[in-house]
Each structure stands twice: as C-alpha cells, then as structure tokens.
TrEMBL record:
One of its GO terms (cellular component) is plasma membrane. Pfam families: Ni_hydr_CYTB (PF01292). SUPFAM superfamilies: Transmembrane di-heme cytochromes. This is Cytochrome b561. It comes from Azotobacter vinelandii (strain DJ / ATCC BAA-1303). One of its GO terms (biological process) is respiratory electron transport chain. It comes from the Bacteria.
Amino acid sequence: MQWRNSPLRFGLVGILLHWSVALTVFGLFGLGLWMRGLDYYSPWYRTAPDIHKSIGILLFLVMLLRLAWRFVSPPPEPLPGHGPLTRLGSRIGHALLYLGLFALMISGYLISTADGRPISVFGWFEVPALLSGLPNQEDAAGEVHELLAWGLVGLAIVHALAALKHHFIDRDATLLRMLGRDTR
C-alpha cells in the first residue's frame, strides 16, 4: 500500500490518521461521560480528567498533522457516480467535522486552563495556560464542550451511516477506499 493518497484511493497515512482520530474521539467521549459520574472520593476523580486532557492535547497535535497532510497529500477525487449534491454534502460534512473537533479541543483547553495552570500531558511536557481568568471561563467552556461533544459524535455517526449507505445501497467504493482496499 502506498503512503500518500492518490486520485483513486487513500494512502496508509491518511487511513491511519482517519481511524486513529475516529477511535480517539469516541474513546474520549465515553471517558468524558464516565467522568461526569465520578464523585470526589473515587480513585479516578483526578486521574480520569488528567488522562482525558492528555489524550485531548495529543489528539490536537494529530489533528494539526492531519490538516497538514491534507495539503501535502490531498484526498482522492470524488467517485464518478457522486453527483453535485453528494460532493457538496461531503465537503460540508468534512468541514463541520474538522471545525467541530478543533472547537471541541479549544473549549477543553479553556476548561482546563481556566485556573491559570498548565496542562501536563502524561508528565512528558506541559501546555501553558495562554488564556485564563475570563469571567465564568470554566463553566462557559464546559457547557460549550459538552454541546460540541454531543454534536461531534452525532455528526460522526451520520458520517459513518453515509459511508455504510454508499457501501450497501449505492454499492460504490467510498468505504473501501478508507479501508485501504484496491477499488480498481
């Protein structure tokens, strides 16, 4: 399998970035839901949010890499059977996924740095608090973070359902290309 995307298919780097981001988003969503139920005396009360923040920062770095990769190695061209509406829907859907994910991570950063302390990423390095002390920063960013998380997961589910529709109903190569299969 080739490393870079071609006009016909995704390369290994694009496929790995796609699936690692997808799994991480759903994993962080599950962890976030679970964290909300922790009480102060739970042994995970501090550890789970630290893990959530660390993975979130690493995901931000992966998304920057993914965004750069789109410029270095553009995605394959739309399939010939995709009409103008499908192409527009795909562009809008992908743009919303990217924007939603970056907004979600920025809101998480604003929650975590509201008290002015940096975010430790698994003890490997720290991300400084560049913006803190805004009125109700933690609460406002928390509400935005929760809404964006639900919206992003909903959008990702629609994205997956669209891929399944292309595969099982339209019987085209949309899903196969993201699974690394040769579609010729």
